[in-house]
User: What shape does this take?
Amino acid sequence: MGRFRVGVLTGGGDCPGLNAVIRSVAKSFLLQIDAEVIGFEDGFLGMIQRRSRPLEYQDVSGILAQGGTILGSSNKANPFEYYLDNNRDVSQEVCDYFEELKLDALVTIGGDGTMSISHGLVEMGIPIVGVPKTIDNDLVGTERTFGFDTAVHIAAEAIDRLHTTAQSHQRVMILETMGRYAGWIALHAGIASGADIVLIPEVEYDVQEVARVCREREQGGQRFTIIAVAEGARPVGGEMVVSSIDETSPDPIRLGGVSHLLMEQLKGMIKSEIRATVLGHVQRGGTPTAFDRVLATAFGNHAAFQASKKEFGCMVALQNNQLTEIPLKEVANKTRTVPLDDTLMYAARAVGTSFGTQNLPAKRMRCPV
Ligand code: F6P
Assistant: This one.
């Protein structure tokens, strides 16, 4: 029998920690079972366009702390609807290329789009293990995706910086985070940096209530207000703010701009000056935090372990702080949003954070006797 041959790719939008996973998958295979590791370039685009290269030890050495992905990524290349060829289904050609390369397994590192494609390819017979990536932390079946901690760290630091300038000028400062349809980044960064108001897609905000909190602070001596708003947040009865539509992308809607909408809405309702900052792709770039490097290494090794056992059709996951795996079909085409009864929602409100509404369920502390 020849050496075990495994392919690896990074799909979808990039995020900090991708290289740490590539390194972990490749080194686990190279060092533990002397496997051959093949990297596909630019995610599924490389599988469609037949672009791959061997990954040797030296290729994956020294990349642990590097942002981005040494393999490149694409958030448009779906083999079931290939955007560069009239949305033709080229999945069989992808399977043929996989066969020609004589691969025994494929590790796909990506978010919900990548996991949905992986699920489709598993149904066609490709043996796949997925690794959950995204700064949005919105994949079902796992408490954490790698990249999220780094994004939260960057957003929290940005809010800390806005805090001091808000204080100096007695302003209302709004920071808009990414996160798509989930408010995880805004919630965590808002809590970490003591934002006064956190607005997330899961809770429609009432602009009157947001203004009331700002006014209360104006009059109460604090004289400034910090608002963390997720890009998917929307006012009561309103829509999410779409910044652009990319028809070539399987997920064409790009959100962005709610911080400016909120600024306009608040004008005239409060005395303070208001400024909005959109953090954008800064949240996705640069070196991963130590936590994300550890998680990426653990996920990568667990994926290699699963593949070496020939247990495919799953995504590695973190549940109850333990490494485990979940069937891809349970992950595909789903989004994990913030539950309104999440402990952090209660914790934030308990320390006085507003979610821009009076309509959240109460959880009162009792006075021990
Ligand atoms: O899913 C990651 C993410 O950064 C989202 O938070 C954001 O809405 C989207 O990708 C931005 O996509 P793009 O990189 O195509 O602008």
Q: What stands out?
A: DSSP finds eleven helices and 13 strands in the chain. The first helix runs from residue 18 to 33. The two ends are 71 Å apart (CA to CA).
